[in-house]
What we know:
This protein has strands at residues 13-14, 24-31, 42-47, 50-53, 57-64, 69-76, 88-93, 100-107, 110-115. A hairpin with a 2-residue loop joins strand 3 and strand 4 (50-53). It has a five-stranded mixed beta sheet, with no helix packed on it. A four-stranded antiparallel beta sheet has the order 4-3-6-7, with no helix packed on it. It is elongated. By secondary structure, the chain is mostly beta strands.
Amino acid sequence: MTEPIDPAKLPGVIPYVDNHDGPRRLLTVELRPFPSSSVPYVPLVSIDGRQFVVSWGAVTFEIPADRNVHVSARLHTNYGSQAAATPFASIVLAPHPEPVRLATQFTGQGGSILPVG
């Protein structure tokens, strides 16, 4: 019999850093750039309140599979008068054993983060 794969040991996966001894799954967040913006934004993703500075594109995290997980994404900038304009999006994922993929969509009025596929 083969050992179950530890998601935190997969290349490129950001491990879940809070205390959790239960089953885990993979979460991939597709961070889509803010459309037609001349302001340089830095994407940030938070998992259960723990914030990560990430890159644009797909980023994969290890998350608990046996309880709710809060996921949020926001854009940050220190560019001139736009320093306070930080679009954000948030979702709570219900317990589930399978991997999940989310995608962000940011606009001048805010943002959304929704399951894909």
